[in-house]
Amino acid sequence: MSFIDDDRPQKKVAHEIGTDLSMLSVDELKARVELLKAEIGRIEAEAARKASDRAAAEKLFRS
C-alpha cells in the first residue's frame, strides 16, 4: 500500500445499508429517507434511459 493513499481525505458515507439507526435523531432519519428517495429516483432514471437506448437499438437492428 502506498503512503499517498493514506493522505487522501476519506469520503464520508451519507448512509450505509444495514447501519445501526438507533442513535440517530428523528431529523437525521428523515434526512436519510430523503437522501435515499433521491438516490432511488436517480437509479430509476438511469434504468429508464438504458431501457430506452436498448429499445432504440433493437428497433434499429430489426429493420
Description of the molecule:
- This protein has 63 residues and is mainly alpha-helical.
- The protein has a domain at 24-63.
- Helices cover 67% and strands 0% of the residues.
- The chain is built from 2 helices and no strands.
- The longest helix has 37 residues, at 26-62.
- The radius of gyration is 20 Å and the shape is elongated.
- The chain starts with a helix and ends with a helix.
- 0% of the residues are buried.
- The mean pLDDT is 87.
Concise description?
This protein is mostly helical. The chain has helices at residues 3-7, 26-62.
SSE ordering: HH
Number of helical stretches of at least 4 residues: 2
* Tally of strands: 0
Distance between the termini: 53 Å
**Mean pLDDT across residues:** 87
Rg:
20 Å
Question: What portion of residues is helical?
Answer: 55-70%
Helix-strand category:
mainly alpha
**What's the main sheet like?**
none
Q: Which percent band covers the strand fraction?
A: under 5%
Coarse shape: elongated
Quick tags:
63 residues, mainly alpha, 2 helices, 67% helix, elongated
Which secondary structure elements does this structure contain, and how are they paired or packed?
Blueprint: H1 3-7, H2 26-62
